[in-house]
């Protein structure tokens, strides 16, 4: 007989609701699972992925997990695990670190035989790569076999991974599939194989209302799956339907019925009733001791028919327009798209940018690093602005000369002083511009690669050449700025005189 705890989706390091207490709760739940394992003297703890909430856990999360795994190691209980989608990295995994320390075993295509059961592992695989899987596993001579993996499998809700196809293709006949990813515990039989989700050990979203826990799986003359709950922080799901005329006072009375001390209060409002501020309810719940209070008002109100004329600019389009005007290279625009506008998860942006940059640097097309020409309308607007400035300077100067000859010398001196200040300002701008250009491309348009062997040798030459390239447009800018400053100073002097 082999008896194991099947857990997963511990999401250690998740600072839910931006509170340190909730972050500690996720580690505490994992510690409770391990304490139960030691007390029950199980044969192993099986973790089905998403040990950490993020692929870059903080040091305190790594050390906290290390401490918990040492408890298992001291009890001679193996920790067998696979990598989930939240913590997965392109190269080495955090699970490998614990394996190197002798505190964990990363399951794979070779069997890990424990008692009468052979355990295999399959890390999370994105849907786009699943067609490449051959599901080849090394043979075993145990009585039972179980596959530990991570993903949304059929026939469960939201399933996008074909369980029947996997079982039919696999080179091993599995008695059970121990799954992670779906935070809702469940079990079903697919053919002769039991397929089960252990659920999460803490509530990672407001939809996870049921008790949190883990599975106890026993392999003996078949597969037996039982469930055990975990004592986690109290969540109060307060659903309130308001009637006509009911408002904030009724809300407070209903919330007052719950013991909110150190709990998470999630209030949902439906029905009719009077409108009021959600913040007022959250503040009231917090005053009554709630650690966190969140209110969702699902009521709909009729908008009064009033003629209102409002014009909103599209901020996203404004940003895109500004990016186009910058004249960025194709490579820069592609990176901007990944960082700012793509649907890549925040936790994956850094790795995705690194991948894109490496692909661009390894490619043969260096034109992607060439700056794009500025749009015609941007050049036109700049020319129009310069023309308007010249006209203003000429008109103001004529007016000053006609109305007050005595003030002309003073005005000219002020204009000269403004010209000097403007030139100094433009000189500072030249340095900035040169630095920016040098950081993007070398004098021949080639990308500047982050390679220590070439950066030191080329740094001085690149900066000098880039500064020279930047000097010409900067000189033109200085002339235009000098003219503009002179006109502006003349006009201010005239206003003071009048």
């Amino acid at each position: 007989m082999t008896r194991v705890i099947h857990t997963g989706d511990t999401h250690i390091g998740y600072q839910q609701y931006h509170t340190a207490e909730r972050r500690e709760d996720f580690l505490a739940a994992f510690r409770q699972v391990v304490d139960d394992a030691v007390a029950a003297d199980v044969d192993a703890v099986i973790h089905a992925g998403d040990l950490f909430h993020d692929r870059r856990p903080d040091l305190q999360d790594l050390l906290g997990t290390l401490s918990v795994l040492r408890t298992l190691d001291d009890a001679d209980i193996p920790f067998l695990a696979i990598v989930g989608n939240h913590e997965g990295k392109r190269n080495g995994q955090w699970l490998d670190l614990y394996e190197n320390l002798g505190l964990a075993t990363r399951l794979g295509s070779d069997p890990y035989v424990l008692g009468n059961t052979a355990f295999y592992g399959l890390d999370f695989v994105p849907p786009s790569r699943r067609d490449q899987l051959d599901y080849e596993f090394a043979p075993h001579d145990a009585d039972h076999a179980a596959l530990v993996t991570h993903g949304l499998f059929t026939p469960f809700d939201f399933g996008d991974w074909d369980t029947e196809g996997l079982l039919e293709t696999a080179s091993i006949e599995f008695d059970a599939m121990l799954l992670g990813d779906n935070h809702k515990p469940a079990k079903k039989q697919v053919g002769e194989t039991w397929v089960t989700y252990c659920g999460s050990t803490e509530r990672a979203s407001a939809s996870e209302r049921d008790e949190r826990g883990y599975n106890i799986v026993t392999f003996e003359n078949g597969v037996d799956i039982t469930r055990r709950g975990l004592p986690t922080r109290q969540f109060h799901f307060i659903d309130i339907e308001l009637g006509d005329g009911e408002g904030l006072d009724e809300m407070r009375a209903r919330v007052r019925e719950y013991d909110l001390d150190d709990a998470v209060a999630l209030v949902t409002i439906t029905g009719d009733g009077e409108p009021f501020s959600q913040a007022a309810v959250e503040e009231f719940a917090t005053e009554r001791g709630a650690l966190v209070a969140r209110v969702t008002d699902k009521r709909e109100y009729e908008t009064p028919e009033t003629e209102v004329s409002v014009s909103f600019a599209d901020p996203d389009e404004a940003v895109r327009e500004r990016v186009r005007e910058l004249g960025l290279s194709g490579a820069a625009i592609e990176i901007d798209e990944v960082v700012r506008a793509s649907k890549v998860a925040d936790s994956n942006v850094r790795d995705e940018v690194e991948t894109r940059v490496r692909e661009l640097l390894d490619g043969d097309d260096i034109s992607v690093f060439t700056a794009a020409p500025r749009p015609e309308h941007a050049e036109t607007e700049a020319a129009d602005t310069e023309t308007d400035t010249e006209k203003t300077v000429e008109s103001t100067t004529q007016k000053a000369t006609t109305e007050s000859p005595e003030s002309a010398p003073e005005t000219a001196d002020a204009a000269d002083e403004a010209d000097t200040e403007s030139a100094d300002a433009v000189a500072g701008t030249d340095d900035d511009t040169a630095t920016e250009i040098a950081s993007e491309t070398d004098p021949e348009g080639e990308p500047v690669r982050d390679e220590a062997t070439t950066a030191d040798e080329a740094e001085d030459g690149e900066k000098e050449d880039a500064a020279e390239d930047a000097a010409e447009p900067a000189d033109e800018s200085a002339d235009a700025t000098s003219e503009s400053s002179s006109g502006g100073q003349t006009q201010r002097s005239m206003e003071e005189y009048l």
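Residues 399-498 have pLDDT under 50 and may be disordered. Residues 452-497 form the longest helix (46 residues).
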